[in-house]
């Protein structure tokens, strides 16, 4: 509608009014969302609304001065209002970042700093530097044009800290990030157009700002905004995923690319050589880091004795599969497998023989599972199998297959000693035996406990009555 008005013959005033209404709508939508959804971090959302109110006030005063025929770009009132939005916006982002991180997340801070430094270089070379050295600018004009890019860089730092941190990532989270990136992008284009005196109110740059306002309003109205400030139970740093490494690698290439641009401007071959060498070195270092990270991830997620996944990997996968099962309406199963009389094996044949028994038992469990199942070492002589898209009947079949495979033939230890091994298996499915992941683990543990106390070498699935369902409270998937 904003861009249709000139086509329909409406005045510039009408276009400015529509623009200001959309700008104000972002803050109003947040206020409505706060009343509707009662978010945990209401203070942060009110800061967002106040920041947008400052932005709207700046827009109104800017367009009012423009309509009155006065110089609006460097007038005091709109610039003060525009500047006031930055501390409010930064405080809102800091509140979210602090609430969404239980402890210090130094890697997230460093990653944000890496990208901010790269962005600062670009801003200096193509925006701030030319503004500082422009000969036709008055001191006040130069100050005004430099302050806004600097404030944008500060907001970028806090926004990156939020992006690289932990916490839930619902629709409101992505809409909020969209608002931040759109506004920062529009500010950058506005600064470059101002530098060459090419900005015209109502141009395509305004469209980016409008898209940002709409994204902010949608973030405030979406129900997921209530969970955006949830406090995590413990500090769990976000893993260095492939996209994050790619983003950091791209940031390290900014400085060499600037040198390439200068080479084309000046024709100095040394600049091109330094740029290419720096880029190659940066990429080699990042590739080396990625290799080390992959190796560390494998070590952290694989049990040394059995080669199965670790308990931590099981916890993380269980949380993901639980969410997926809830969205798809499918069941999630869990089997707990305990080696019968394992202490007797250690006492009789020694701990190395016990490790051989565990390794062979793990191999037979893995061979009995489907490709999508996750067998893991749960602790000591106990194993777990996470079974996505399962049913109670399917769990029984899998559990019986595991029990039979382990008991089918003795395990050879020390090269010649044959040890008969059996396992007890307890299991549960969510639903019908449990409603939460914690209930699922407790119910499966209770079934295992009952299987051990009813003779061993057997399978029990589901709820157990009679007081035999003691839960293993050492395992907490949310931890």
UniProtKB/TrEMBL annotation:
Gene3D superfamilies: 3.30.70.270. It holds the Pfam family GGDEF. Keywords: Membrane, Transmembrane, Transmembrane helix. One of its GO terms (cellular component) is plasma membrane. The keyword Lyase does not apply. One of its GO terms (molecular function) is diguanylate cyclase activity. SMART domains: GGDEF. InterPro entries: Diguanylate_Cyclase, GGDEF_dom, Nucleotide_cyclase, Rev_trsase/Diguanyl_cyclase. SUPFAM superfamilies: Nucleotide cyclase. CDD domains: GGDEF. One of its GO terms (biological process) is negative regulation of bacterial-type flagellum-dependent cell motility. Residues 330-464 form the GGDEF domain. The chain crosses the membrane at residues 16-37, 44-64, 76-96, 108-126, 146-164, 171-192, 204-224, 245-265, 271-291. The keyword Cell membrane does not apply. PANTHER family: DIGUANYLATE CYCLASE DGCM-RELATED, REGULATORY COMPONENTS OF SENSORY TRANSDUCTION SYSTEM. NCBIfam families: GGDEF (TIGR00254). This is GGDEF domain-containing protein. It comes from Planobispora longispora.
């Amino acid at each position: 509608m904003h861009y249709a008005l000139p086509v329909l013959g409406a005045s510039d005033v009408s276009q400015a009014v529509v623009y200001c209404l959309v700008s104000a709508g972002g803050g109003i939508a947040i206020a409505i969302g706060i009343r509707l959804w009662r978010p945990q971090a209401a203070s942060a959302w009110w800061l967002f609304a106040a920041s947008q109110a400052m932005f709207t006030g700046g827009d109104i005063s800017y367009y009012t001065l423009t309509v009155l025929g006065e110089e609006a770009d460097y007038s005091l009132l709109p610039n003060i209002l525009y500047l006031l939005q930055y501390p409010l916006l930064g405080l809102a982002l800091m509140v979210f970042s602090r609430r969404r991180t239980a402890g210090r997340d130094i890697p997230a801070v460093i990653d944000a700093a890496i990208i901010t430094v790269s962005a600062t270089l670009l801003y200096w070379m193509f925006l701030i530097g030319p503004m500082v050295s422009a000969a036709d600018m008055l001191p006040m004009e130069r100050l005004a044009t430099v302050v806004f890019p600097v404030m944008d860089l500060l907001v970028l730092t806090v926004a990156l800290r939020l992006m690289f941190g932990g916490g839930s990532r619902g629709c409101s989270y992505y809409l909020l990030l969209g608002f931040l990136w759109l506004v920062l992008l529009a500010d950058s284009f506005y600064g470059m157009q101002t530098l060459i005196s090419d900005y015209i109110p109502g141009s395509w740059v305004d469209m980016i700002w409008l898209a940002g306002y709409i994204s902010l309003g949608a973030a405030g109205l979406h129900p997921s905004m209530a969970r955006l400030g949830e406090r995590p139970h413990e500090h769990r740093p976000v893993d260095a995923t492939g996209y994050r490494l790619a983003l950091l690698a791209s940031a390290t290439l900014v400085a060499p690319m600037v040198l390439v641009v200068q080479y084309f401007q000046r024709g100095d071959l040394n600049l091109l050589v330094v740029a290419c060498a720096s880029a190659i070195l940066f990429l080699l270092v990042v590739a080396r880091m990625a290799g080390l990270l992959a190796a560390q991830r494998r070590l952290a997620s694989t049990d040394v004795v059995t080669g199965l996944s670790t308990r931590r990997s099981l916890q993380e996968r269980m949380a993901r599969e639980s969410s997926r099962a809830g969205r798809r309406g499918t069941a999630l199963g869990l089997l707990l497998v305990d080696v019968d009389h394992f202490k007797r094996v250690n006492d009789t044949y020694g701990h190395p023989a016990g490790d051989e028994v565990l390794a062979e038992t793990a191999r037979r469990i893995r061979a009995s599972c489907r490709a999508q199942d996750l067998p893991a070492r749960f602790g000591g002589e106990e194993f777990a199998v996470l079974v996505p898209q399962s049913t109670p009947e399917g769990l029984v079949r899998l559990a019986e297959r595991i029990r039979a495979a382990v008991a089918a033939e003795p395990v050879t230890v020390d090269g010649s000693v044959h040890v008969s091994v059996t396992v007890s298996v307890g299991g549960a499915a969510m639903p019908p035996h449990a409603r939460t992941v914690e209930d699922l683990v407790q119910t499966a543990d209770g079934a295992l406990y009952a299987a051990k106390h009813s003779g061993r070498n057997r399978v029990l699935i589901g709820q157990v009555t009679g007081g035999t369902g003691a839960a293993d409270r050492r395992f907490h998937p949310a931890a």
